[in-house]
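Technical note accompanying the year-one report. For the benefit of new consortium partners, we illustrate the data format agreed upon in the data management plan: each record pairs a sequence with a structure-token string. No post-processing was applied to the example shown here.
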Amino acid sequence: MAMRVAMMGAMLAAGLVAARVAAVSSAHR
């Protein structure tokens, strides 16, 4: 169960980072 929670947290963090990178890149352009 702990592994599942950690995986979910990692996926959420990756999604947040991807969204932030997309926003910064779109704003830069």
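Partners are asked to follow this layout when depositing records. The chain has a mean pLDDT of 91.
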